[in-house]
Amino acid sequence: MKHIGCHLSVTKGYQHMGKEALSIGADTFQFFTRNPRGGSSKKLDMADVTALLALMEAHQFGPVLAHAPYTVNPCSADPRVREFAFEVFVEDLEKLQAIPGAYYNFHPGSHVGQGTETGILMITELLNRVMFPEMTTTVLLETMSGKGSEIGRTFEEIKAIIDGVQQTESIGVCLDTCHVYDAGYDIAQHLDSVLDDFDRIIGLSRLKAIHLNDSKNPMGSAKDRHERIGEGFLGLEAIEAIINHPKLKHLPFYLETPNEIPGYAEEIALLRRLKKGAL
Ligand code: FE
Ligand code: FE
Ligand code: ZN
Predict the structure, then answer these.
(1) How far is the CA of 79 from the centre of ligand 1 (A)?
(2) Beta bridge partners of 138
(3) Are the beta carbons of 165 and 130 closer than 8 angstroms?
(4) Which ligand sits closest to the CA of 215?
(5) Distance 24 CA to ligand 2 centre (A)
(6) In angstroms, what is the span from residue 214 Cα to ligand 2's centroid?
(7) Which end of the chain is least crowded, N or C, by CB within 10 Å?
(8) By 3-state DSSP, what share of the chain in percent is helix, strand and coil, each rounded to 5?
């Protein structure tokens, strides 16, 4: 854990998120690029973004993580839903050029009965349409729990998507600890072997960010319900091992636990106490 932050609301602007992060001991953050249920996004206020960039530089922030809306499904059976995903990606990636080196995280999608192979083809097709050579953003595929017909439950599926992407230097992975655990990867008891699998199948150099969440459900439940740090089935000992793991400690971590701001402040303080070595 090199940087630690949590999910913040974008409604009061970019600089506000930076200040809010600072006020709770964070040195990065995640935000939705627009209302999580979709819909149009506001135009960028460049003065606001510039103020955030200055704050980030002054306080040595890690990369910010923009999260695509949940309604984005690049492998829907409905062409209008796929077109919506395309429009959101184009708009968001264009906007994120104002924040050089940002991450753009999305849920690969649900194939809704069309099959994993078709779904993966549709996802790579979208990515190849929206990525462009000048982009400074790295697009991150989020590992999923596998509820419903979600793609991205296994490392093999994530790898198949990456293999289909032409602009290979701009694609990476965000590992969600609740999701992989619910998907059946035992990061509580066998973290080393899960990371070995990740490295063998995807390559650890693709891993750019961690969503740090405990899980309300046991391993393999395919549920995806986040729990506060140390209060779920993963437990505090496993979380401590994850944030300090030699193969993960250079990465930014983002909390998406069920919390308001004061709860996030507590969790960040707890994680900083558990972190071994200098901050
Ligand atoms: Fe997510
Ligand atoms: Fe997540
Ligand atoms: Zn989740």
Answers:
(1) 23
(2) 103
(3) no
(4) 3
(5) 20
(6) 11
(7) C
(8) 40, 15, 40
- Secondary structure letter of residue 232 according to DSSP: S
Map out the domains of the chain with their CATH numbers: 3-274 (3.20.20.150)
User: Residue 53 has what DSSP assignment?
Assistant: H
Instruction: Give the distance (Å) from ligand 1 centre to CA of residue 255.
Output: 11
Residue 249 · residue 2 · CB < 8 Å: yes
Q: What whole-number distance in Å separates Cα of residue 120 and Cα of residue 38?
A: 22
Q: How does strand 28-32 pair with strand 3-8?
A: parallel
Cα gap 54→242, rounded to integer Å: 31
Written as six digits, the tokens of 232 are: 């779920």
For residue 77, give both structure tokens: 């059976």
Q: Are 102 and 96 in contact (CB under 8 A)?
A: yes
Instruction: Report the separation in Å between the CA atom of 187 and the middle of ligand 1, taken as the mean of its atom positions.
Output: 18
Give the ligand whose atoms come closest to the C-alpha of residue 145.
3
- Tell me, in angstroms, the distance from the centre of ligand 1 to residue 64's CA: 14
Q: 225 C-alpha vs ligand 3 centroid, how far in Å? A: 6
Question: How far, in Å, from the CA of 144 to the mean position of ligand 3?
Answer: 7
User: What separation in Å is there between the alpha carbon of 259 and the centre of ligand 3?
Assistant: 14
